[in-house]
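Deliverable D4.2, example record:
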Amino acid sequence: MSVGAWEPEKAPGDRDNDHSRDEIDRALLEKIIASMQGDVNTVATFPQEIIEAKWLAGLPAQQWLDEATALDPDRLWALIRFFTLAEMQLPDWQGGAESPVIPLAKSLRRRKTPLSRDQLMWIRQHSDNRYLPYGPL
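Output generated by the structure prediction step:
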């Protein structure tokens, strides 16, 4: 008789089960950025491809910092808005202290173009995540 460890089955959308998502899909980021153009305050009606990409919220901060170097401040702001809204409006998108908003905002500070007071107020009005935008102390 052998004794083994039982591993629960992973759902098809689980990040651990999908190694093709180790890299950030730039085409998907472009779709998110394009969807955030204008005065968007809801992401629940976005295309299913975006709504199902909750694995993006779990990527490491360094990966977001690296990706941010290729994006201008307006595009970073679009992603910050998206992830802020996604945490509140989409199931399983809660990032807490690991939210992509934190490294994206950090990348703006590193460029000497930090979030404005209006942008900070927007984040506070649209999120109950106490870690946004600067992370844990």
